[in-house]
Amino acid sequence: MIEGDEYKYTQNAIGIENGIRYYGIEENGKNYSIIFPEKDKNIALMIEPESTDNYFRGTLIFAMNKKENPSYSEYAERYIN
Hints:
The protein is mainly beta. It has one helix at residues 72-80, and strands at 10-17, 20-27, 30-36, 43-51, 54-65. It has one domain (10-80). It has 1 helix and 5 strands; from the N terminus they run βββββα. It is globular and about 30 Å long. The protein starts with 9 loop residues before the first strand and ends with a helix.
């Protein structure tokens, strides 16, 4: 549930690449990936991938952090570029 809206999705991928854990999900015909770039899983990124061949390359949708408010631009620079 995000801001009161509920989304129905299916998980269609799970993996680890170069030590980075990711999950692929599909919602309403669109693919997304949830990436945990740190081992402790406090930080997560939601990306709309360009292709399911590479879950790490695409548009950053959400930047998430369990402990503090994330900086979208900082996370994009640090983990995406």
